[in-house]
Each structure stands twice: as C-alpha cells, then as structure tokens.
Design a protein that fits this description.
Strand content: 35-45%
Number of domains: 1
Distance between the termini: 60 Å
CATH class: Mainly Beta
Order of helices and strands: HHEEEEEEEEE
Strand order of the largest sheet: 2-1-9-8-7-6-5-4-3
Structural class: mainly beta
CATH topology: Lipocalin
Number of helices: 2
CATH architecture: Beta Barrel
Helix content: 10-25%
Amino acid sequence: MKYCLLFLSAILIIASCKKTEVPASKQDVLRGSGGTTWRMDTATITYRLPAGNDTTTSAWGNQQRPTCKFDDYLIFRDGNIGALNTGDLKCPNGETQEIATKWGITDNDTKMYIYDAGDMFFGADVNAQLADFSDSKFVLKFPLYNVTFNNQFIVDTVHYTVTMKKR
C-alpha cells in the first residue's frame, strides 16, 4: 500500500507539471530563424489639408512604386544590426547589394527605429510607432520631419504608414 501511494503521488506530481510556453519577443520574431526577411507590402502618406482634414494616399503619389524596389527586403540580426538587401532588380544599375542598418525596439515594445535604410523608407531614418505586430507582419507609423531655419526639428503634418510582411 505504501508503494502504491508513493507511485500515485509521483504520477500526480509529474502530471501536474506543465511546461510554460514563453512567447517569442518581438525582436526574436523579427530575427526569425535563419534567413527571415521582411518586405514592404504597402506604404501610405497621411497629410493635413489646409481645411484641417486628413487625407491618405499612396506614398508614391500618382506614380507607381518603382519595379526595382519590389524585391528589396530587410534582415534583422542580433546586436541591433541588420541589412537592407536591394534584391536582384537594381535601380540604378550597380546599386549596392546589401546596406548595413541599425534597428531596435524601445519604449516597452511600442516603438521601433531603423537607421541607414533610407533607400527603402523614402530617404529617412525611421523612428516609428509600432502600430501593429504579428508573427507575419508589422506596421510602422512615423512622421516626416522638417528642419526650420534655426536648425530646430519640428513635426510636420505628414505621416507615413508602412506595412512590412515576412517573406
């Protein structure tokens, strides 16, 4: 009887122990497992009209996104370094294959920066709100900044919204 109780106790202890799954951090999702890349899916600009109404349009205005930009992608690596890979289609010819970037997620996982990837982000370093995030996409919202005559940054009324999807 004593062995029976000991055996049942051991079974109950083993059965009650469950492995707690720890969700992957946003940084881990971005880095992925070997070869995870992220492509721009959509990009819009929202700006305030003189009447005070906001309007949203394609980030490329009346033009189409250049074909050579469709295969560009970001790679997020350890140590807050990454790369902008310009893909197989080059614009202009002779474009560098990979551009070193810096990235990070801050402010309790609500903001993200991506530096030195201006070729993808309309010539700007990105300091963005992380508006949406999942295992397969993330959405960045960031303002366009203008410099005033006295070298003070002011936030313009123009904001980009960019959706990146895992490839």
